[in-house]
Amino acid sequence: MVGIPLIIDLLLIWGPTIVAIGLSFTNWTGIGPITGKNFVGINEYQKVWAYPFFMPALTHNLIWLAFLMLVATPLGILMAVVLDSDIKGSHFYQSVFYTPVVLSLAVIGLIWQLQYAPDVGQGFINSLLAHIPRLPFTHFLPDISNTDWVGDSGINLFAALIAASWRHVGYITILYLAGLKSFDPQLREAAAIDGANARQTFFHVVFPVLRPINVVIIVITAIEALRAFDIAYIFNGGKSGLELLSTLITNNGLSESPRVGFSSAIAVVLLVVSLGPIVVFLTRMLREDDK
């Protein structure tokens, strides 16, 4: 029961991680054997710092994190609170919100790539925008109809964030709804007796009690943002305004002139950045176990 999952974890998780750390100190291209001449110390890390796409990719990952944390996650929590109020058709809406969660991110990328198709009559969004007249007081806004949402227009990061949020909102909704269903209703009744309205009850009673769920949601959101890859790569290969650390790893490691050592160095940087929320999550879980 323990040995087989442990072996799989070592082979598929820790094994490649250790190999990547070792390769990050080499300039190996992925072709031919590794010799002593391939070991270059921290030279590849210095190249990563000087790489012109590294800071934009890191910035995009942080923007991704901020958008999921400040927009998609609160929206998911709001949806969970609404569905917990036993509105009519609640089970139907739960199914609707959860449907994107069971789809792979690659499939979601393909779905939204079709929605963002630049030709009017093909992409739903551009077709819709083309039939909406521009109001006189919106002349200062950019005309986003007939825009290449997933090309070189610079708006593609926003488009990718919308696609990612479509799945993330549903995930957070179901996760938080599960926590709300297990919430002790007597606490709500006590708050109502004390004169608290629905907003006060949520922020001063429900939200603090669901602190373990809140921590899990924060960690999951951080990990989702830092490991983002599929949607950006489906859109345009992670280029032209959609550079992420994960796409830099793939594009450099699997290009026509592969730089495995260099891409491994970027992977180690991503690992170090990701350790923050992972350590917070594990520390939280261990403290709960001790209690």
Secondary structure: elements and pairs:
Blueprint: H1 3-23, H2 43-50, H3 54-84, H4 90-98, H5 105-115, H6 124-130, H7 156-181, H8 185-193, H9 198-209, H10 211-226, H11 230-236, H12 245-253, H13 260-290
Helix pairs in contact: 1-13, 2-13, 3-7, 3-10, 4-7, 5-7, 5-11, 7-10, 8-9, 10-13, 12-13
Describe the fold and architecture.
This protein is 68% helix and 0% strand. The protein is mainly α and 291 residues long. It folds into 2 domains: 19-50 and 254-291, no CATH class; 58-243, MetI-like (MetI-like fold, Orthogonal Bundle). The longest helix is centred in the first third of the chain and has 31 residues, at 54-84. The chain is globular.
Using the 3D structure, state the CATH architecture of the largest domain: Orthogonal Bundle
Q: Provide a count of the helices.
A: 13
| Percent in strands | under 5%
CATH fold assignment of the largest domain: MetI-like fold
Helix/strand order, N-terminal first: HHHHHHHHHHHHH
CA-based gyration radius:
23 Å
